[in-house]
Structures are given as C-alpha cells and as structure tokens.
Amino acid sequence: MNAFDTSKGLLDEGDGSPGTRNNMVHRNAHKRGDDMWDYNFTYYPPGGMGMGMAPMHRHRDGQQSQYKKELDALINLGDHKEDLYFTDNAAIFRFTSSSLFKVVYPLVASSSSGFPIDAFDISTVTYQGGTPDSPLPIYVHQNRGGELNGSSYLGFTKHAYSAFAQVRYAVEGIRKAQVERDKGLNPGSQSRETSSDSIQAHELESGTLVTMHLQDGTREPDEPGVDQPLKLRLTNLGEIVSILVPVLLTGPDTVSGLQSALRKLGDLLSINVEEKLTPNSPDFTAMVSVRTRTFQSASSSCLPEADFRPLSLSLLAHADRQISHPKVPTTTAAWDLASTANIKQRIQEIQQRREQLAQQGREWDIEELAVRVKCAKYVYTVLAIATAFVVGGLVCGFTVGESIVGVDPFNIATFSWLLAGFIILVAKSIRVNEWPWRDFLLGRVTCRSLSELRAVTGANEQDLYLYLLTKESETALITRGPYNKMFVRKEEHSSGGFSIDIKPEIRTLVAAGLILIKVSMQDGSALVCLDLRRGSEKRDSRTSIAHIGHESNDHVCRYPPRQGDRIQDVELNRSPMWNGLRWNKILGIYHAADRKVR
C-alpha cells in the first residue's frame, strides 16, 4: 500500500501510535503505488521516466532537492505531532500537485489520433438517461486524442458538476468581455451575436470554437446556455487558456481525484464525507466542447455523410434527438426546420408519454419469466358488451313471443349467446397468446413477451424496451431472445424467460447508457459498445476505449451496415467468431439514431 494512497487511510497499518506511524512512513518510503507516486512526493506520468521528464522535487542532475532534505529531517525527528502535521499536509499536497499535472499533461500533443497538433476536440457531456422514475445521469468525456471515458455513478456526476459550473462562469465572463470590447471598438454597432447561424457564418474566420450548455434547477429558462447551447469564437490565447483549463477540470482523472481527496480529507478530519463534503449538486445536463478549425477540416467525423461523429456533434450532445416522435422524426430535415416552440412542445409530449408509462409500471408485477398487468377496465368492457348481447337476446325472445309467424324468437337469443362468446374469445386471444380464464375474470393478464406487453398497455415499443432495460437491475426479470443481447440476465433454455421480440433503436440504447463506438481496423471497421449502465463497474464492462485496443467480452458488430445494403440493422455479437477483435484507431461515436439493433 502506498503511504499516501487517497483510497485508504493513513493509519491503515499499525495502531496509530507514534512509533507505528513513523515506522509506517519509513516502510512505505520507496514503494510505488498504482498512480505512480512515491514517498518523495514524486509524480511519474504514464510511461514512467522514459519520457525525458524530471520528477517533481528532484533536480535534473539527480540530486535531492532542499525540500526533500527538509522532509527527511522532519521524519527523522520522530516527533508524533510533527509526523501528523507532515502526513496531513502530504495528503493535501498530493491532491493539488496531481490535479495540476492532470490539467497540464493533457495539453501535450498526442500522436495517437493522427491529426495535426492544433487539431483537437476536447468535450465532456452529461445527459439524462433512464426513465422518469429511475433516472440515470450518464457522463462521457473525449480527451484531446479522441479517446472516450464514461461513467453513470451518481457520486461521480455530482463531483463533476462543480467543474461544469467553472466552465460556465469562464464562458460567461469571456462573452461579457467580448461584448464590452466590441462596444468600445464600434460604439454604434450592436452587441456580438452568439447564435448558431452567426457561428456557422464565421467559422472560417476563427480558429477555436467553444460550445457550452448547462441546464440545472438554478437557471432561468431564458438565460444563455440553457435552452440553446452558447457558442463563442475565441479570438486570442488568453481566452483559449481561460476556457481550456476549466474544461480540462471536467476530465475523469480530475473528477476521480477530487473524490479521492475528499475521502482522504474525511479520514483526516474524522467526519462523514457523504454528509459534509459531497457536493450538493442539482439534477443537471451539460455539454462543453473546445473544437479547433483544424479539427473541423481534418477529421472525417465532421463530414455530413459520415456515420460517426465526435462527442460534441454526436447524439449524446443533442438531448432533443435522443427521443422518437411519431409525427416528426428527429433525424429528418423537418425537425431541423421546426421552431424552438414546436420542438419544446414535441419534447414535452414525449416526456408526458414516458411519465405515464412510469406510472403504469408501478402497478405491474414483474416476475422472473413474465410481467403481470392489471387490465380490469378492458375485461369489464368486454364482459359488459357480451352481457348486453345475451340480455338483449333474452329480452327479444320474451317480447317478440309468437308475433312473428314461423319464427322461434329464442333462436335470436341463441344467436346472441354465440355472438357474445365469440367476442370474449377474440378479446382474450387478440392481445396475448395465452390468457387463463381465472386471470381474465380477475382483471389481469400475464405477458410473456415484449410485443404482448405493448399490445396490452398500448405504450410505445421503444419506451417499453428502455423501461425494462433500465429497470433490469431492480427486478428479477429473466429474458430470452431473439433481441435480448443487451440484457444481463438471460435464460439459457428457449422455453423459459420473457421474450424480447422487438428490436431496439440506437437512440434507445443511448438513453439506457449503451453507446456504440466506430473503430478502424486493418481490414475494415467495426462497432464496439461502451456499457455505462448502472452497475457496469461491478460487471467488469467496458466503460472506456483507447485508440489501440482489443475486444474483451464486449458487444461488437464486425460488419456495420453500409449505405445501399438491403438490411440496415446493426447486428451485435457477444463473442467473436475468431481470435478477438483488434483496432488501431477510434473514428467516433456511431451516428444513426433510428437504426435498429439485433
């Protein structure tokens, strides 16, 4: 164990006595932790010392610095109070030093992306997935080299909020400064435009574009950067640095470092970290991106005809396209041309539809092999219609009597009985395959497939798929094919299990925390799935992807559909048919919202 490992207390070894604590420091003096720190407070970046970089607090000639000598003197004194002071400050020093390095190191040019030095798109997105009654905040970050990292851990997204807030303050400050500067240069002109149209018209005039969106409960709907992303053209190096530093603070390394530092501070102060130190952040969605003009022109992911996008231009960064509207598809030009008020109305309709489904789901009994739904209204309506036919036939038989010569009036009653029975049989079999009489009379139905559940409830099929996929960790449902590859609990035998017989769309998987990444290989391209669902860390699922990597029990699509193919479905497989799947570059996030997956 590293003596200054932020994931464990300083007194994990020994009983805390002066001699024990002093000995602990000496025992761990030259051990190297997983995060590449040693006792001398020397930070070694990824790749070790072979990068030609000198460690912190050590001279280039290899001699110990005066600071290190002073620390040795403090330890050798053997005074308990001084040891406590030294170790407590060491924990704080470690966080500040590592945080500074994590901000500075990403500024180093990366050759893994294959782009020029000034071509990059650093982006971080936090979007709201899941269902209304089981929300799932999903965090995704794209670093300078184009590699992706994500998480759906609630504590992680809470700690990331403060970094997004710093970006917002920086963007608003630069925006105000630009407006004041423009007014000073041109007193009679209007303030600088920040709309999307003005940005697109002047993209070639500016080298760097920053896009910021942060929606939370503390912001008014008409403030900039809330309903519509706020875009700024950065005009000088000072503005770029002022934005780039807080943007890098939204990276996963910095956020996880903040979590570790707060845990360590809780150990030092003996307080409840969850209660006292966890940020009290609201439910929020955010997107921040710093994209250069060189990246816009050099990356094929920015081409209109490409089926992959960088994070800032992907489906994840556009919450209004993560939904499916029956009247106006979100992937068509009609959606782009729709007014802001019309788009808001459509989104509200979809949110109401999902909230209604969540309310209905609270009344369902989700068992291991089926979903039991109450449908008393439907049953009583059918029985009322059948009863009306029966009673009408009897009334007709008694009232008509012998008024019609040669006709037995009770034949009409017999016919009405047959018609009533036919109506009940059709009503019982039109929605589900099997409906026992006992369940029918009790006003409930047992659905054994997703299509039956859709027929009974009348809900949107994609909303139902998202609901069951998100709720899988909270229920005991066991699924079977043909389209249950994304579920964790599967029935090995085809005779049992709840049948997932409806194909999900890409946008449905995105809302559930499953993101398809397009990668390049020596003999073509493939799709690799990032699993950011709740509990993915415990399942050892893939939550990050680098340029050079290989498949390890991931959901992959070896042959993505191409334009002109007769079948446009994405076929995912869990296990490859040959010795693994290896790639050499990340192309971007797969961008086909309405494409089906099987």
UniProtKB/TrEMBL annotation:
Keywords: Coiled coil, Membrane, Transmembrane, Transmembrane helix
Regions of compositional bias (Polar residues) in chain numbering: 187-199
Annotated source species: Immersiella caudata
Domain of life: Eukaryota
Coiled-coil residue spans: 340-367
Region feature (Disordered): 1-27, 180-200
Name assigned to this protein: Uncharacterized protein
Membrane-spanning residues: 378-400, 412-430
